[in-house]
Amino acid sequence: MEAVQAHPAGVTAASTLALGRPAPSGPHTYAALDLGTNNCRLLIARPERRSRRRNTDFLRVIDAFSRIVRLGEGLGRAGRISEAAIERTIVALDVCRAKMETRGVTRARLVATQACRGAANGDEFVARVRERTGLELEVIDRETEARFAARGCGSLADPHASSVLLFDIGGGSTELVWLTRPSAPGEHRDLHSWTSLELGVVTLAEHFGGRAVDARTFTAMKNHALEALEHFVEATAEIRRCSRFHLLGTSGTVTTLAGVHLGLERYDRWRVDGLWMTDAEATRAIDRLRAMDFDERVANGCIGPQRADLVLAGCAIFEAIREVFPAARTRIADRGLREGMLLELMEADGALA
C-alpha cells in the first residue's frame, strides 16, 4: 500500500487486442472491458470531437453492458475464486464477446483487476476464460488501474483547483490518486502520487457483515479503512491544497450516494455524472442510507438487491477518506477505467487530438 510517484505511460502494442479482425478502411470501433471484484462492465465506442473551443474530446458510445458477477465472493477467506463465481463471470463475458462481435469491434483492451491479482487460481481463471469465450484477459497492476481511472474521469476536476484527490472504491481494492494542475495548458492533470489499498466493498462487507450494519459495525469498518489510509495520508501531507481543493469520486458507492441525494426513483447516469455534492450533502446522504434496513436498501431504485449488502461498506470507506482528506465538496463521476482505456487506445492510434 505504498504511495508511488508516477506519470502516465503510453499504451503498448502488446497490451491491445485486435480480436482477429482486419484493419478497417474507416475508423476503428473500440471496446474496453473492466472485470473487477464485483462487476463486469463493457463499453464500446468510437472517437468523436467537440468544438476546438472546448479543447476537449469525448466518446460516442455505441453499446454498453454491466452485470454484477461477484467474482471475488469468498476470496478473502478461501484465497481462491470459487467455481460458482467463475461460472457467473464466464456467462457475463460471453455476453460481452457477442456484443463486441455484433458491433464490429476492431480494437479492444480487456482487463481484470484485484480479484485476479489476489487469487491463487487467477491464472487458471484467465485460461478458462480464454478456452470458453476466446477472450484474452489482461490482469493489470495497481498503478495501471489508478492511471486508467485518472484518465477516465480527470476531466471532471475543477480546472482552477491546484490539486484534487481522485478515489475509486472498488470491490476488492480502493485506488487513490493525487492529481495536480497540468504543467502546460491543454494537457492532462499530472498524476503526482497514488496508492492502491487491498480494501473494497466486497472484502469489507464479508469481514464485518453488510446486511445488518449498526453504528458499532459501521464505526469498525470506518476505523479499518482509516488504518489502511495512514501511509498515504503521511506521504501526501506536504502537498499544497488550495481553497478549491476537492474530492473526485468514481464507482458504485458515490454514484449510489448521488442517486439517494437526488431522491431518484431509478438511477439516472445523466443526472449523476458530473454532479457536485457539498460535504453536508454527502453526510446527509450517508445518514439516510445508514437509517435504512436491508429490505429498504433492496427496495431503493438506486441500490437494489445486488448492492444492498455492499453499499454501507463503501460509505464507511468514503467517510474515512473524507475524514483524513477534508474538502468542502466532492464531484461524482459515473466514468472511470473503461473510459480511460478507450481514450488511451484512441490516442495511441492518433484518433484523438
UniProtKB/TrEMBL annotation:
- Which organism encodes this protein? Methylocystis echinoides
In terms of domain of life, where is this protein from? Answer: Bacteria
Q: What is this protein called?
A: Exopolyphosphatase
What is the phylogenetic placement of the source species in the record?
Bacteria, Pseudomonadati, Pseudomonadota, Alphaproteobacteria, Hyphomicrobiales
Q: Name one Pfam family in it.
A: Ppx-GppA
- Limits of the Ppx/GppA phosphatase N-terminal domain: 59-347
Molecular function per GO: pyrophosphatase activity
